[in-house]
Amino acid sequence: MGFFLETLIGGLMAGMLYSLVALGFVLIFKASGVFNFAQGAMVLFAALAMARFAEWIPGWFGLEGSYLGTAAAFVVAGALMFVVAWLIERLVLRHLVNQEGATLLMATLGIAYVLEGVGSSLFGSSIYTIDVGMPKDPVFLFEGTFAGGLLINKEDFIAALIAAVLVGLLTLFFQKTTTGRALRAVADDHQAAQSIGIPLNRIWVIVWCVAGLVALVAGVIWGSKLGVQFSLSTVALRALPVVILGGLTSVPGAIIGGLIIGVGEKLSEVYIGPMVGGGIEIWFAYVLALVFLLFRPQGLFGEKIIDRV
Amino acid sequence: MLYRENGQFKTSYAADQQIFPITQDRWAIIGILVFAFVAVPLLVDEYMFRAILIPFVILSLAALGVNILVGFCGQITLGAGAFMAVGAYAAYNFHIRVEGMPLLVSLLLGGLTAAAVGIVFGIPSLRVRGLYLAVATLAAQFFTDWVFLRVPWFTDNASSGSVSVSNLQVMGWQINNPLNKYLFCLAILTVFALMAKNMTRSAIGRQWMAIRDMDVAAEVIGIRPLFAKLSAFAVSSFFVGTAGALWGFVHLASWEPAAFSVDRSFQLLFMVIIGGLGSIMGSFFGAAFIVVLPIALNQLLPAIGDLVGVEISTAGISHAELIIFGGLIVFFLIKEPHGIARLWSTGKEKLRLWPFPH
Transmembrane region positions (chain A) (predicted)? Predict the structure, then answer.
């Protein structure tokens, strides 16, 4: 029982991390109808920037060993993501308005290549570490209830907490602020939004900036867990089933989807994996998402697809 | 002046229905075929065959398959690499497990196996659409990656799924040097391209296109989505699977699952989108673009570096390649979202009216 709960909790926390990446997909798709394959590259880019600036900035200003250096690195990396978002909107998206989904998808793949190339030529392509001072030691809970207690990784727990806070903030932003309302209006109908005076281009820059920030947070958390390296950009592929499971247009869907996928992956790896030779995590997530899709083709929380002839 | 159909009258149905109704087009195709089969082998050296021509021919075949599914039937797929892998490993199994299996038969059986697998992974398309389907097809990709890595039976117990074939021959014709490999692949490509062209202009191709343009409307006028979508998946996977078998057998000779990774799927999708969705010609343009571009960049960048007196490191070159490759793709998509094939057809239209465009 204890082991099962441990796996379950581990899955839930891993799921929160997937949600973080999935959130970036959902934000951009909601506001601009672009399925952003570059999200993984953005996570990598942000993590690389964060890792390197955290190394450089203390050296430049003599801030060794203080949290100020890390904070400054975070701010600089965030600013860099804003620049990236602005450039993407300015150079690519603006010219591709009203194109088909497949064309936009490929354009973001092109952006992904560019980002990966620029990222590794600016910041180098070795393996870096990010240390934002998260506690690494595991803790035991409920030692009285189960024999040996439940082993929980503190780092995972904090990461999940950060993800939850971020989601809360984003929900507030979408529901309560004027900009958030404008974003939702654009998501509903580009033309109608434009006709009541919402500037499309500015909205897109904003949403890509927000997605860039989410990528930065995801990059910092994933980076401090796994180390910053080229393979970080493949977390996007791990997050894709989360996105379609939850629905491409739903922020809460990304969270619930992440939790389902996280738990499903961990449980399948532990209980089914040994029977078939292990390593089934990655495709199991996709198959799980596919099964859900067969019953709800628009994802769990996506907008209902209505066909008109 | 040279290219127009004025004065070419058709007096029979057969003449009206031929693939290339314009005489000049027919001559151009014959010219291209003669060039590809006769002139190219005389002109080109071994490196060109191995680095450019053979990959181009095989990937064109795969791009044709992807174009049937994505361009003609409108089902976006990110799992083409998976079907290449299925084709390659199925052909391998037929080749080594059945004594005296002719090469061509095992290649085609590989393609057929891929078609069967394609039908299975095409079933979600009946319910799931658009981007959701694109992500769902990734399931095929990761599943086959895993199967060929972890299930030893498929790879004849080879470690990490790396297998190899040798001694290829078709009815006594040894396919052992780059020239013969090229001719062999080219012959297959020619037959398959003809097949694709005919299929897309017949009843089944029209069904695919109706489904692509609006599936609900197509269903209302009596097209069975089940048959149309699954047949598109089957035909597409057959093409892609045969291409995968050729890629493994003829081009690589020994390969492992990583040869058919998700990057390969993306590459194939790039080809059809840059070449032109829903265009046979476009598949060739796209394949040529994607195959030649990295090689050209690889050769050009150090040369440019020398020219301006900057020594570019190997890592720098590979990064610059990524940037330029991605940048060019974005540039192409912005400038011509309908692909190179659209440029080609506008060019032809202009030629028809030339030199009096008004």
Answer: 12-29, 41-61, 67-88, 109-130, 157-174, 203-222, 242-263, 270-295
Question: CA–CA distance from B71 to each of A70, B4, B111, B209, B286 (Å)?
Answer: 49, 28, 20, 8, 13
Assess B269–A contact: CB distance below 8 Å, yes or no: yes
Residue A162 counted as domain residue: yes
- Mutation for B interface: A93, A106, A237, A303, most B CBs within 10 A: A106
Per-residue tokens: B247: 């890629």
The per-residue pLDDT for range B249-270, each reduced to its tens digit, is 989 888 888 889 888 998 898 8
CB pairs under 8 A between A and B: 143
Contact between chains at A286 and B220 (C-beta distance less than 8 A): no
Whether residue A196 contacts residue A130, with contact meaning beta carbons closer than 8 Å, is answered with no
B194 touches chain A (CB under 8 A): no
Domain count, chain A: 1
Whether A103 has a pLDDT exceeding 90, the answer reads: no
Q: How far is B270 from chain A (nearest CA, A)?
A: 7
- Report d(CA A152, CA A86) in Å as an integer: 40
Q: What class, spelled out in words, does domain B37-353 have in CATH?
A: mainly alpha
Q: Where are the beta strands (DSSP E) in chain B?
A: 163-164, 169-170, 173-174, 254-255
- The 10s digit of each residue's pLDDT in B196-220 is 999 999 999 999 999 998 888 999 9
Q: For residue A217, which of A26, A24, A63 has the smallest C-alpha distance?
A: A24
